[in-house]
Specification:
The protein is of the alpha/beta class. Helices cover 50% and strands 10% of the residues. Strand 3 (40-45), helix 1 and strand 4 (75-80) form a beta-alpha-beta unit. The relative contact order is 0.04. It holds the Pfam family Ras. Residues 469-646 form the PG1 pseudoGTPase domain.
Length: 701
């Protein structure tokens, strides 16, 4: 209770934690060895102590207070350890203070740092009356306020840490230096201390590492099914193996190291491999984890299910083939009850069975139609009495059906009566018009196949055969135009020809074959080239932006169709682009003559072809090209055709032939062109070698 202390060269403050470490803390000595006392904090421990009676302790405090009161110095009662305080002790301490005049009580906890500053500031206010009076806050209310303050400071500090620390490789010394200027760091350290700040940092780093490991784990596990599919796709190979033997089997696969990596240290998430993001190979020890084991079992189950589904599909097909209830044309709804069982529904969706059934039905129908066609050929006498080009009457159809009705091949199409009647009508048409177009064999017709083979072999022969083209007196011309333009020009050109489609060019007669095209050139009916028509040139007509676009698209489609084919004839086909009249004249659609000419010139430059416009042709807008212009175009195509024959590469056999060697060549009766008998006609027609032509010329087949 002394009010003056004297202790020369002693530190003003120290605690037992600083003994032996005094030099590590701030050194403050008593001034001149003397220290006046301005007030007292009377501390009362309100926790439950061992071998300590609080009533006796309170008596000691009362006596001590009486001594302090004699000093006339301010006194504040401080209840300590309130975080472990006993409610009765706190109540008794307050009762003690109430018995004294103006004795204030502050509830504190040094451990929780609650109201410690308040205790000192309360005493300071009593010493210095000029200071504002401090508000005494009960312990639990102060604890709540401080908890809120700490929580808010902690949230801000954690936000700061998450903003600065992005990698789990960061270390505390570097990060703490970066954060020191930030108020979020300063406030939290002031309230909770550096150690707690470091602890939160370490927790954040650990969380980042776990998140990184989890991302890598997901990448590996997502890749594992692909690895298993690639390495062990066969169920028989792994179905009865233990896990250990299955892993040895994986290691023995040639592509094992493409999918997996065997690490020297384990587990994988504690090695440097986890940070090697460029290496996505799966750590082999990951297979020992429960998640990987589940994926392996799922792979086995998938293979078993695939096998079972394949067995179900096979069993269903066999059921279809053996079932007498499945006939051509029978709907799925009628056949389902006869061919489905519960096992089928367990393994596959009904849509799968419907797809299989549809394919099976197509096979049945195709076979039934083929058999029915044979039946019609066997009963040819039924169709002899029909009038040429006349459709059979109902009575005649009734007779045909009555005669054929007992045949099983007729009954097989009972559910497809419309198609059966159509086959009969098609057969009648074929009987009176037996061409390759009406042939029941369609693409397999021998006549069509022979033409195709001859056409393809003929093109190849011309590339290697230096003989002059005997077809030089024939011009095959494609006329391409939209909305009737091609047909109109073809009619105009035919009007200029003789009765037998001959056209005179420079005093010589040429056979002129025209093929007007106005539709989609990818369809066979609109193709530039057919087995019997190989074009020598093309007239491209337009009278509007739309018709010009059609020409460009058609040419590009035609050229694309020759990519990869042995004959590139269409790719170098001579083209002439012509601007013709608009029906009714005028600038329809707002298109001027000048703009159409300009567009045509641009397209001609792009297609590398000749461009004819009304000005260059010497005719007015509103008329088609005249006879002179047609003659010039045909002469240009004829010259191009001659040049093509002149530059064809020669074969080694030509020189030998001129020296009298035995070069066997035949003439094709369909087109008159020379072709090699040994290489083309004999293998196709199985004919005998031809007799030589008189004078050692080309033989005639």
């Amino acid at each position: 209770a002394a009010t003056k202390l004297a202790s020369a060269e002693k530190l003003m403050y120290f605690c037992t934690d600083q003994l032996g470490l005094e030099q590590d803390f701030e050194q403050k000595q008593m001034p001149d060895g003397k220290l006046p006392v301005d007030g007292f904090l009377l501390c009362v421990d309100v926790s439950r102590g061992m071998n300590r009676n609080f009533d006796e302790q309170l008596k000691f405090v009362s006596n001590l207070y009486n001594q302090l009161a004699k000093t006339k110095k301010p006194v504040v009662v401080v209840l300590t350890k309130c975080d472990e305080g006993v409610e009765r002790y706190i109540r008794d301490a307050h009762a003690f203070a109430l018995g004294k005049k103006n004795l204030q009580v502050v509830e504190t906890s040094a451990r929780s740092n609650v109201n410690v500053d308040l205790a000192f500031s309360t005493l300071v206010q009593l010493v210095d009356k000029s200071r504002g009076k401090a508000k005494i806050i009960p312990y639990f209310e102060a604890l709540k306020q401080q908890s809120q303050q700490i929580a808010a400071a902690k949230d801000k500090y954690e936000w700061l840490v998450s903003r600065i620390v992005k990698s789990h490789h960061e270390v505390w010394p570097n990060v703490s230096r970066k954060m020191q200027p930030a108020p979020e760091y300063q406030d939290y350290v002031y309230l909770e201390g550096t150690q707690k700040a470091k602890k939160l940092f370490l927790q954040h780093v650990q969380r980042l590492k776990q998140e990184h490991i989890e991302r890598r784990r997901k990448v590996y596990l997502a890749l594992l099914p692909q690895a298993l599919d690639a390495l062990v796709p066969d169920l028989d190979e792994i179905d009865h193996l233990s896990r250990a033997k299955a892993e040895k089997l994986l290691e023995a696969k040639p592509d094992f190291l493409k999918w997996f990596v065997v690490l020297e240290e384990t587990p994988w998430d504690a090695t440097s491999h986890v940070d090697n993001v460029d290496n996505e190979r799966i750590p082999f020890d990951l297979l020992e984890t429960p998640a990987a084991e589940q994926l392996y079992e799922a792979h086995l189950e998938k293979l078993r299910n695939e096998r079972k589904r394949a067995e179900m599909r096979r069993a269903f097909r066999e059921n279809l083939e053996s079932s007498p209830f499945v006939t051509p044309g029978k709907p799925w709804e009628e056949a389902r009850s006869f061919i489905m069982n519960e096992d089928f529904y367990l393994w596959l969706e009904e849509s799968v069975y419907m797809d299989i059934y549809g394919k099976h039905q197509k096979q049945l129908i195709d076979k039934a139609k083929e058999d029915f066609q044979e039946l019609l050929l066997e009963y040819s006498e039924l169709f002899y009495e029909l009038e040429l080009d006349a459709k059979p009457s109902k009575e005649k159809m009734g007779v045909i059906q009555e005669v054929l009705g007992e045949e099983q091949r007729f009954k097989a199409l009972q559910k497809l009566q419309a198609e059966r009647d159509a086959l009969i009508l098609k057969h009648i048409h074929f009987v009176y018009h037996p061409t390759k177009e009406t042939c029941p064999s369609c693409a397999a017709c021998v006549d069509a196949r022979v033409e195709q083979l001859l056409a393809s072999r003929f093109i190849r022969q011309h590339r290697n055969n230096p003989l002059v083209d005997s077809n030089i007196d024939r011009i095959n011309l494609v006329i391409l135009g939209k909305d009737g333009l091609a047909r109109e020009l073809a009619n105009e050109i035919r009007a200029l020809c003789t009765n037998d489609d001959k056209y005179v060019i420079e005093g010589k007669m040429y056979e002129l074959a025209l093929r007007p095209i106005e539709g989609n050139v990818r369809l066979p009916v609109n193709a530039f080239q057919t087995p019997t028509f190989q074009p020598h040139g093309c007239l491209c007509l337009y009278n509007s932006k739309e018709s010009l676009s059609y020409v460009v698209e058609s040419i590009e489609k035609s050229r694309e169709s020759t990519v990869g084919r042995r004959d590139g004839h269409l790719a170098q086909l001579p083209l002439t682009l012509i601007l013709v009249n608009k029906r009714g004249g005028g600038d329809a659609g707002g298109e001027t003559l000048q703009s159409l000419i300009q567009q045509g010139q641009q397209i001609a430059s792009k297609l590398q072809c000749v461009f004819l416009d009304p000005a260059s042709a010497g005719i007015g807008y509103g008329r088609n090209i005249n006879e002179k212009q047609i003659g010039q175009v045909l002469k240009g195509l004829l010259d191009a055709k001659r040049n093509l024959n002149l530059v064809v590469g020669s074969t080694p056999g030509l020189k030998d032939a001129s020296d009298g060697a035995d070069l066997r060549v035949v003439m094709c009766l369909m087109c008159g062109d020379p072709v090699s008998a040994d290489e083309v006609l004999l293998p196709i027609l199985q004919a005998q070698p031809c007799r030589p032509a008189p004078g050692g010329g080309a033989a005639v087949l």
